[in-house]
Amino acid sequence: MSSFSTWVVAAVGSAAVAVALTACSGETTPSAGAPSPAVGSASAGTSDPAAGATTSTAAPSTAPSSATSTSGSTAGGGSSTSAAAQVLEKAKANALAARTVTFKGGVPDDGGRIEITSTGAVDASTADISVSSPKQGKARIIIVPSGNFVQADAAFWKSSGAPASVQKAGSKFVKAPGDATSLARSFSFTSLAVKAFDGLDANDLAPDVTEKTVNGVDCLVVTGPDGEAQGALYVSKDGNQIVRFTERGGTQLDFSGWNAPLTVAAPPASQVITLGG
């Protein structure tokens, strides 16, 4: 399921391009008001006045997992290989049927590491996303039906090729003209999940399904032939929801808040710079 890593890297790159294109389409019109919280400070599950709401889905803990590592088959009978396939199929069905999700983690990228936190609709039509990249800087992106709102540091604006007026936005959000379609496509979890799961079949799985506690959740662990070191999918035992995905090389994404209420909102007008065009 290396598509997860590829997707995070591509999504951050696409976001920078989309922001640059929209930012270059007009000049800024500052509005009065107190500056919003610093870029990169927002995460799922925290109260943030810039978002205009408190997200109701908490970001997963990054505390070490408590392993029980019990090998063997799982409920449903059959061999351990078929059990792994069954766990994967249930996780896939639930992920593709979900309406909302929160995920947080990191992906290695060209000697650095991209960190991402996202909460919102699985198609990203409504989402609150924070990204951090050594090459592209830090940004918080709020996507709602009324438009895209981006709060970024100087490194992100510069790497995105934003005009000078945008680079002077400071800690305020910049609202790009047009709708949120482009950025939503970049961060769509549904699109990513379809590609990732379609690239897997039972032959990709190890014969055993093990057990481990991840972020306080009892999970079934599905791995490749080389075990967890190669990469793993951790699926909750009680709900068959993805809890964690890992991949060789340091990729880790933690998932929570499946189907939680959606509360993402646009920032207050006083904290927004609107682009013309």
TrEMBL record:
Record key words, sorted: Signal
Biased composition (Low complexity): 28-73
Disordered: annotated span: 27-80
N-terminal signal peptide: 1-25
Protein name: Lipoprotein LprG
Organism from which the protein derives: Terracoccus luteus
Lineage: Bacteria, Bacillati, Actinomycetota, Actinomycetes, Micrococcales
